[in-house]
Amino acid sequence: FNVCYWSFDFSDEIPTVVGIFSAFGLVFTVSLFAWICCQRKSSKSNKTPPYKFVHVLKGVDIYPENLSSKKKFGADDKNEVKNKPAVPKNSLHLDLEKRDLNGNFPKTNLKASSPSDLENMTPKLFSEGEKEAVSPDSLKSSTSLTSEEKQEKLGTLFFSLEYNFEKKAFVVNIKEARGLPAMDEQSMTSDPYIKMTILPEKKHKVKTRVLRKTLDPAFDETFTFYGILYTQIQELALHFTILSFDRFSRDDIIGEVLIPLAGIELSDGKMLMNREIIKRNVRKSSGRGELLISLCYQSTTNTLTVVVLKARHLPKSDVSGLSDPYVKVNLYHAKKRISKKKTHVKKCTPNAVFNELFVFDIPCEGLEEISVEFLVLDSERGSRNEVIGRLVLGAAAEGTGGEHWKEICDYPRRQIAKWHMLCDG
Fold it and tell me: For the C2 domain, which residue ranges apply (predicted)?
């Protein structure tokens, strides 16, 4: 009787024991799964993705050589030690990220050209009576520099031109730039790169990689444009825009170079050329469209109310169809961006109605050092949004931008609206 009693009591405790072990097993499994997930997440966050740049050539993406290779961008290994620029030891520089855009640690590089190359780089001068203009209707020379432009000393661009008759291709090699101004006041250097466009159709747009912390970048990048007949070259022009990359705001424009190809003979082979970089001439164009803006300055609360109302006559983004515009609003204080906003995207329309209001807090008394930049962009999936037009309102702005700003300063607490022509971005 006693044996049967204890046997019955033991079988009654089995479900309790099984339940305890099951609970411990479940807790252990969940803990192990969470630990594995955390390890994978931390390993992914530690990886720095390589910076890829794209050469846009007739709609085809051309990627460079493997970014993980040990080949030095922008300099020869022999000249790496000899040509390091002297940087003041006491200069203040804050490295927010030690790695550069290519995932490598930055090193200052210069490329020294041989004396023979420098002698051959003689520019072909055009008539001095022609004036500069980057428009599809008239392509004119920009070789004559004013005294003010010469005093600025924005540097010199070196490049070569060639035509491949077998492949019917126009070849442009951007070699280097020398003597660029420092766009970063802390490190007293720049992160330059170059955009190039073939005018007047602007179908061919390319850009070089970014070279970090140098005023004498050696790009040595070759761009080949297929399908351009040799007889068409005389009707074209090359437009170079030299910029400095800025990780935290809009890239700084250093200057530009315009090269009309009329009169340049490429049948004898490669031609080495150089041109002085001049200050970018902000040209107004009716083809960029117009923007209706309303402003109101509240002196009591020290706020600026900006209303983006409408845009009209916006150009097509490309031959495929209409653009998908939106407006980006940047507030600047003493040339430093302190706030940014943007509107919603309007699909497939040259005449967009936004009616969106933004309120900005002004960090100073008055609007003397404040300016507002409006960028009308075309929203594109999978690629960088292209700037359709640009507008700046402020005390130093010219034309309607300066007039509009003066009115809101003279009449605070009054909402004033005006149409403005957009400039090239």
Answer: 153-274, 287-420
